[in-house]
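Feature request, filed as a ticket because there's no other form

It would be nice if the structure record came with a short human-readable summary line next to the tokens. Right now we just get the raw output. Example of a typical job, pasted below so the devs can see what we mean:
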Amino acid sequence: MKIINGTDIVEIYRIKRDIETLGDKFLSRIYTENEIKYCESKKLQKYQSYAARFAAKEAIYKALSDYIDFEYSWRDFEILNDETGKPYVKLGIKIKDLENLSITLSHCKEYAVANAIAIYK
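Raw output as currently delivered:
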């Protein structure tokens, strides 16, 4: 068994700036329809949610990068929430020997952070 951790931190103002200047071009390149719907439902805190998901995608890539030897899209790492609100990853790609992938997200006024743990056979 091999365990790999990935962590990322993002300044929320950078994600807000990119969304405001690039709009749908940025959103559709990074986020799935489900992620956009979730983040937009957060109204005033939507940029924190977008930033947390962006950080999660970066953290996931760090945890999976030794096992990705093909082209992928940021949309292949979909960050959803279960019925209790806990975030989880829906992968749109197959990763050899991956047994489990879990994430945590957190944000405050200025930063969003995410941690991903990948467990391989």
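Something like this underneath would help us a lot:
Strands lie at 2-11, 77-81, 87-91, 98-107, 111-120.
The mean pLDDT is 95.
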